[in-house]
Amino acid sequence: MIKDIKVLFRANSSSTIGTGHIMRDLVLAKEYREVIFATEELDGNINYKIEEAGYRVEILKSNSIDELDRVIKRLDIDMIVIDNYDIDYDFEKKLKTLNPKLTIMVLDDRYQKHYCDILLNHNISANSSRYKNLLPKSCEVRCGREYRLVRDEFKREKNKKTLFLSMGGSDHTQILPLILSVAGKFKNLNIHVVTSSANINLDRLKRYILNRDNITLHIDSNRIAKLMRQSDFAIVTPSVILNEIDYMNIPFIAIKTAENQNDMFNYLKEKRELILDRFNRDLLREYIDLMLIRLDTTLINFTDLSLSEKEKVLEWRNHKDIRKWMLNREIIYLDEHLNYINSLRVLRDRVYFLVRYRGEDIGVIDFTNIDYINKRADFGLYVRPDSRGRGFGKILMKLIIDYGFNRLKIERLIAEVFSKNRVAIALYKSFNFKKRDLKDRDNRDMLDYIYQKR
Description:
By secondary structure, the chain is of the alpha/beta class. The protein has helices at residues 20-29, 47-52, 65-75, 89-98, 152-158, 176-183, 202-209, 224-229, 240-247, 262-270, 281-296, 307-317, 320-323, 334-343, 392-407, 422-430, and strands spanning 3-11, 32-40, 56-60, 79-83, 103-107, 118-121, 140-143, 161-165, 189-195, 215-219, 233-236, 252-255, 274-276, 297-301, 351-357, 360-371, 376-383, 412-418, 434-441, 444-452. It has three domains: 3-153, Rossmann fold, CATH 3.40.50; 159-279, Rossmann fold, CATH 3.40.50; 296-452, Gcn5-related N-acetyltransferase (GNAT) (Aminopeptidase, 3-Layer(aba) Sandwich). Helix 6 crosses helix 11 (281-296).
């Protein structure tokens, strides 16, 4: 979530200091709406990098606290981020005295004494216990992997997935180019297209992949097993090749291209796998998107959470922005929370999950009143309170629909929502939920939204 405050970053770069401080600050700066950098113009600096990133630079003549104080007051700064080894505890304390309402965040990786409101050590080796007696008691300490600052280029590379794509040796229905026209638009996909010299569309395929670095064409390859093993998922026909994909435990999307594939197609349909009975551009795009979310997501059953994870979920649940939309708006205490989670071990009509997406805990989804006979269930979701605006609600909704229909094998999902909860209602409408009943709960109007399996 972008924080709507004015932030001043105080850091330097030079041929002796290096560039690391500025580069990590540019990553952190993306969390804030209005950012200004205050830096000296030292030999070998990379201040141009700051301007290239779209941020304003205030050039300081020295490391004087008086000069910095004047900049803070002139620009009406809400928070300063200090990433500078030449600024110490005494400097920070005096700055706070001069600006009592100023929030001071310090980046530190040397376990030095600081006078700040927030201490950030983003190294994977960071140990918060080593800051004992080095910081004010009210200081918020952020340490370790959860807070590491990684540039977008590395995030994109980590999040890239590899697709194995084959529609048989000859691609007799000539749909490989159509599939590529959909899959090729996913920028986080590397695609290995496997075909043979019998494919009459080879020239068309070669033209399509020209200048597309993320697509590789393999013709008459003897490395099929290796290519499969290196892939995260596959798009194939429900034929012999799918037996091989299944043997390799590779997730797949199957597209039927011939009548002799009906038996396997019907089997996969019964198993609620991702299948298409013919090429469908919109549905294929939806399935690839869902597959990528599946690959990036872990659903952790509440009964398998560690104590600290249970405490974290409870903290989210009790947050005012979440609690106000719950049927029970009272604060839930830890013993109640733990007892309820223990009860889930024997209850078959409900299940709760902590959702971990790309290594980050983003929210909670749940299914209650699960009716396996009539194939219906109620559901709920909430995103982590500090992550609004990052699109996590849509990810949670896709996971609910996927898990409900394909794992629980139900056919109708029902959400109860307060009529004034506009954010939730907008989310349901964006997924084509249908509004049903208006009813009263504790003198508050509630609506039912229903999603029916297509």
